[in-house]
Amino acid sequence: MTSSSDRSPAVDVQGPKSYEIRTYGCQMNVHDSERLAGLLEDAGYVRAPEGADGEADVVVFNTCAVRENADNRLYGNLGHLAPMKAKRPGMQIAVGGCLAQKDRDTIVKRAPWVDVVFGTHNIGKLPVLLERARVQEEAQVEIAESLEAFPSTLPTRRESAYAAWVSISVGCNNTCTFCIVPALRGKEKDRRPGDILAEVEALVAEGVSEITLLGQNVNAYGSDIGDREAFSKLLRACGAIEGLERVRFTSPHPRDFTDDVIAAMAETPNAMPQLHMPLQSGSDTVLKAMRRSYRQERYLGIIEKVRAAIPHAAITTDIIVGFPGETEEDFEQTLHVVREARFAQAFTFQYSKRPGTPAAEMEDQIPKEVVQARYERLVALQEEISWEENKKQVGRTLELMVAEGEGRKDGTTHRLSGRAPDNRLVHFTEPEQDVRPGDVVTVEVTYAAPHHLLAEGPVLDVRRTRAGDAWEKRTAAEAAKPAGVMLGLPRVGVPEPLPVAANSGCGCD
To answer: Which of 105, 289, 362, 506 is 20 to 30 A away from residue 177, measured at CA?
Structure first.
């Protein structure tokens, strides 16, 4: 820790203090950042205007530790803020998330201008730690070893008025050799079903029409209470909630993906025809080295059952290229599974060492140039398949939930964007009738690209919804406040299927 003589005295700031949150990594971190924003606003802070870039009174980094260069990225950003903080003694910087849980005291040693370091288990302490650092004029490092309170009990500042994450569990019981998440987030801990459903009902009452059930391994839900069918029961229970139009979940694990979950997806009207099923590798040899408790035959069997029960399901995946010991034959097995499964999209990753994982110490680390060449072959194959699968959508009539901010060219093309039931992104012609995010439109698909669809004809129908009403009400209320700052990648709300070349997220599910 730094001494008080190393730090400038705090200064009084007129009016409420502003905050900015920068989020890296997976959906869990994005959801945690919603909690951090809620905690700060509950403590009297206000969001800094968009583009503040370090001008906020409090800058919070919610970090990820699963990429090899995660610490370099963090310290580079902290270094950028150091001169700003030197000019503004009242400014505070906090670092939380997985990297904070992992590195602890190292952060304030390398960046002594940081005021607060907190872990994945005690995000609720952030306002208290900020105040303590201000009063004591020294850095506060507090890392809990186990979960102090389930995050969903904390205040939340949700990014979307019409779509929301709902956490059903935290932590993970798997021991994948490439993944450090269990060491940082702890063993799986499940929420009570009644608490989950109560949160969903409360969100629907606020106008939310789409929820995504979130967990490190959602379909292992129930292991805490000894009920192997708890997750399928939860899906069916969500189907009975009036006003809830769409239910999604992420991420499952092939080991725990059972037939009762497939049946629940097929038989629950508001369960969307979309599945994100991490593959990681198509080689049985590599899967064994990864300590993934399934093999190629089991994986493809799941895909076959899902397609039989839900013919129009869009299936996405995670794949790691270049795991230690991966041979050309192993890689060819991954390409074989990609051809057989015909994924709508894939999150593809070049293997990188994660300090503290068994895989980082394995022999036969693959040369960078070999990994890059294989990665490019995989991306090219998946790009081809994604385009072919999207072309099958041309001529289909789809109901889209209108999205906010997902079409980067919407302003210049006079289009709006929305998500189909299978979560494909569709850009459509702006209708004469007023349409709001959260409303539902019916369109006919006229063109397909690898990562999006176009509906260039007139909108066939517009259905104004309670979710659209909620967006309109929230927008009007926000107009009187400072403009918001986005929480980082990925977008909050409807989870966005990224291009195959994307290198964000953890890829460790």
So the answer is: 105
Instruction: Give the angle 250-177-26 at the CA atoms, nearest 5°.
Output: 30
User: Would the pTM count as exceeding 0.90?
Assistant: no
- The pair phi, psi for residue 259, each rounded to 5°, is -60, -30
* Beta bridge partner(s), residue 249: 213
Cβ atoms within 10 Å, residue 18: 20
Query: Which residue type does 385 have?
Result: I
Mean pLDDT of the chain: 86
Give pLDDT tens digits for 377-405: 999 999 999 999 999 999 999 999 999 87
Q: Which residue has the tokens 């779509």?
A: 163
Q: Yes or no: say if 111 and 176 are a contact pair by the CB < 8 Å rule.
A: no
- CB-CB contact of 444 with 397 (8 Å): yes
Of 445, 438, 435, nearest to 425 (Cα)?
445
Q: Which residue has the tokens 């029961």?
A: 233
**C-alpha R_g of the chain:** 23
Q: Which residues, in sequence order, are CB contacts of 479 under 8 Å at separation 6+?
A: none
Query: Which pLDDT score, from 0 to 100, does residue 334 have?
Result: 98
Contact 278, 251 (CB under 8 A): yes
SS3 501: coil
Amino acid letter, 195: D
CA distance linking residue 181 with residue 160, whole number of Å? 27
Question: Burial of 363 by CB count in 10 Å (0-12 exposed, 13-18 middle, 19+ buried)?
Answer: exposed
> How is residue 347 written in tokens?
């999150």
Structure tokens at 324: 């230690």
At 433, is the secondary structure helix, strand, or coil? coil
Q: Is 447:427 a contact under the CB 8 Å cutoff?
A: no
pLDDT above 50 for 169? yes
The pLDDT of residue 455: 97
The torsion defined by the Cα of 381, 382, 387 and 389, in degrees rounded to 10, comes to 110
Distance CA 464, CA 273 (A): 23
- For residue 225, the tally of other CB atoms under 10 A from its CB is 10
